[in-house]
Amino acid sequence: MAEEETPQDVEETPAAAEAQPAAESSAPADAPAAEPQEVLAPKERRRRARAAKAARSQARPARTPEERQAERQTERARKAQLRRTGRAKAKASAVPTGGERTAPRAHVEGTQKVRQGVVVSDKADKTITVRIDAARRHRRYEKIVRTSQTLHAHDEGNDAHAGDTVTVRECRPLSRTKRWRLVEVVERAR
Question: How many helices (H) and strands (E) does the chain have?
Answer without folding.
Answer: 3, 5
